[in-house]
Amino acid sequence: MAKTPHDAILPALLLHRLQVNMHVAGPSVEPALSSHYEEFDMHKKTGSIFKAITAATLMTGAMTAQAAWELDGAASSFYYVTSKAAAVSEVNSFTGLSGAISDSGAASLAISLASVDTGIDIRNERMRDIVFQVAQHAEATVSVPVDAAALDSLTVGESMTGTYTATVSLHGINLELVADLKVVKLADDSIQVSTVRPLIVGATAFGLEEEVEQLRVIANLTSITPNIVVNFTLVYNQ
Questions:
Q1: Looking at the domain 68-237, which fold is it?
Q2: Model-level pTM greater than 0.85?
């Protein structure tokens, strides 16, 4: 079928109208797209900043956690010597040890009194139930302020010796004891703390004289010396 002049004019009008519409819409569309890209770029930058802050926070937390020292109970030892019947001395120990040294220099030691080891089961039971009364007093604790910067400055193999004031909590009583201690840097992530000379701890000072007397009567002994001699070696790891 042959096209009429009307048929030829109609497509031309439609094309012209489309070009006009595109020209009109153009100025309003371009700013909108530009605004969208700017908003997207802002979100992208904000996300990058947030990630950087998060990474810095995690790194700071990791450094703080690394600065603290945890007691290695398996590598540590705590011994005390008792005397009875005027001439018999015996070595005893505690195996349940835990503790830490914070990055601010607060050193702590917790002793599970139920872990007492005298070498004889019935004597362990008597110590737990009669003397320490672990049902009411499960732990003895020791806290000592130390110089954290001095610990960090030690090189492997280097040691330092000092006199420290320790707060000891036992049987509901808190007392301060003075101890001479030696600190040795075993490795980059390990230190050892030990007594330079033995400590003498009295049962009477912690209100345990009646419990010691009960133990003497039950064990049918002529005497039990109320003082014990303490030595320990503690290993802390980062």
A1: Lipocalin (2.40.128)
A2: no
